[in-house]
Each structure stands twice: as C-alpha cells, then as structure tokens.
Design a protein that fits this description.
This protein is mostly helical. Helices cover about 45% and strands about 10% of the residues. The chain is built from 8 helices and 5 strands, in the order H-E-H-E-E-H-E-H-E-H-H-H-H. Strands 1-5-4 form a 3-stranded antiparallel sheet. A two-stranded antiparallel ribbon has the order 2-3. Strand 2 and strand 3 (about 70) form a beta hairpin. Helix 1 packs across helix 5, helix 2 (about 30-45) crosses helix 6 and helix 2 (about 30-45) packs parallel to helix 7. The longest helix has 15 residues, at about 30-45. The chain is globular and about 45 Å long.
Length: about 200
Amino acid sequence: MKQTKLSDKDLILLLLYAKGFRGVLCEPIEGRTRITKMVFLFEKEVWESFRFGKLIPENVLPEFTAYHFGPFAPKVYTDIEFLQNLGFITVESSGAQEASAEEALELQWWRDEEGPDDNQFSTSAYTPEVFSLSERGTNFVETTLWPHLNDGQRDGLHRLKKMCTGVSLRRLLQYVYSKYPKMAEESQIRDEILSQRAYDY
C-alpha cells in the first residue's frame, strides 16, 4: 500500500475513531480540553511509533505552550471547528458538568484570539460538549486513514484513548501536570490539581 502523510486534522479523526475505555470503535470524546490534552499526549507518548515512514511528520503537530490549564494549542480548537464545518464530526451537549469552568475559559480564550464572534459567548452558560465522528467522518477514516496504520500504531491510539477517556478530566490533568511539569507552570489550578489523591495510571 502506498504510504500517505497524515495531518493534524487526521490525528483528531483517528483519536475519535479509536477504541476508548469501553473497548468500542468510534467512542465519543467529551470536551475540547480533553481532546487537546490527548493530542499533546499523542505527541509525547505515541508519536514515536508514527515516525517510521514519517506517517505524521513532526512539523504538522500542533505547537503546545503552557497556558492557564496546562498544555494548550489553539490549532486543535481550529481543527475541531474545521472538521465540524466539513461534516466529519458532530458535537452534542453533555449532561455532565465536570470541569466546565476550565473548559469554558479555554474556549473563551481561543475565541478571543480568533477575533470578534457574532455569537455572544458566556462562560456561565457554557454546556460541556461531546464530540463524535459522523457517518461521513467514519467512512473517511476507514477508507483513507486507518488502512495506512500498522497494528502497533493502532494499538498505541487505542491505549491512549482508553487512558484519556477512562478517567475524569481532572485526573487526566493530574497525569499531564505530574509527568510534564513545565506545561503546568502557568496553570491557574496547578496546586489544586496536584494536591488531589494520587491515582494509579
């Protein structure tokens, strides 16, 4: 099979397609913040297995900086919007209220950076979001992306998604802050997150 090059947008689609903690393909992912941390952890802990053949070139990975709630890359949010507008992913409201303040503030900051928005955004009215692949997105991954991955690369995506979707967002942040402390230096909730009871990852 001819080798292909994957983009940062393709990575988000692959994460949405991979199995999560329930062990089922295409498990939804709750929250932009969680997706952002998953992309960060992919780069740190999974990307090495994708270097063979330069399947995902390093220069296409988003550039992360330490922000108010840990590693943040505006490009991830932009890519999510692009894929949603393309009809590859769907977004629904979640009934959960977990860490909605953090997610709402990150979303507000990104929208401010993108420029004026015709739709007024209120963090107090923010509803957590759940992201899924649409039928179109699923077909694209199954025919265009997934076949180019080897078993090791697929397993790496499954393990990453299982870890990141099988814990609360704050437990995920605790893992990221503990393992990559430089990315937590600007966090407004670092002390609160790191003081939580230790969790066996």
